[in-house]
Write a structure and sequence with these properties.
Elements: E1 4-11, H1 13-16, E2 30-31, E3 37-42, E4 46-48, E5 56-59, E6 64-71, E7 79-84, E8 87-90, E9 98-108, E10 119-131, E11 136-140, E12 142-149, E13 156-164, E14 167-170
Parallel strand pairs: 1-6, 2-13, 5-14
Antiparallel strand pairs: 1-3, 4-5, 6-10, 7-12, 8-11, 9-10, 11-14, 12-13
Length: about 170
């Protein structure tokens, strides 16, 4: 039976911001060390790297992969936008990724002083999604834009584009 594999990507934006002169060209992102991003996968077998930047997962043909990214502050201070997961080596096991969103009820704290009982609110969730289309092993890039807050306006401004390379293995 096909399944949905969720991959949560958290970027250590404090450390990424120490990289001088990052790329401003999304087609040529600055490479980052694997210890600046942390990935957790659900709904699949993890070969290795759960909670690291070297996530290696198993998937089956017909599975759906949904990836989403955030900063350590949940995009409150610095913000991260996942914009690409292109193949760079190996087999072509994934369809092209595309953005999809769903509005669904979720829970938020009742108030700042009393979190329970939770309030139910509608929220829009964004996913970068692709389908597993073939067997093999694919190395791909995780590409993201990092936005920092302008000290005068408080509005997000582009700091730079970055990338690193995990793996997906498709068994059957």
């Amino acid at each position: 039976m096909s399944k949905t594999i969720n991959i949560l990507i958290t970027i250590d934006t404090d450390r990424v911001r120490t990289i001088p002169n990052p790329s401003k060209d999304p087609a040529k992102p600055t490479g980052v060390a694997h210890n600046l991003g942390y990935m957790v996968a659900t709904g699949t077998t993890v070969n290795s790297g759960q909670g690291t930047g070297d996530l290696d997962i198993n998937a089956l043909v017909g599975d759906t992969v949904r990836a989403f990214a955030t900063s350590g502050s949940d995009n409150f201070e610095d913000a991260v936008l996942l914009y690409g997961m292109p193949k760079f080596a190996g087999d072509s096991v994934m369809s092209p990724y595309f953005y999809i969103n769903f509005t669904k009820s979720t829970v938020v704290p009742q108030s700042t002083s009393t979190p329970l009982p939770a309030r139910i609110v509608d929220e829009t969730f964004w996913f970068f999604q692709a389908n597993v289309i073939a067997k093999g092993t694919e190395q791909y890039m995780v590409q993201f834009g990092l936005y920092t807050r302008d000290v005068t306006t408080g509005q997000p401004v582009l700091y730079g584009y970055f990338a690193w390379d995990p793996t997906i293995r498709v068994q059957g």
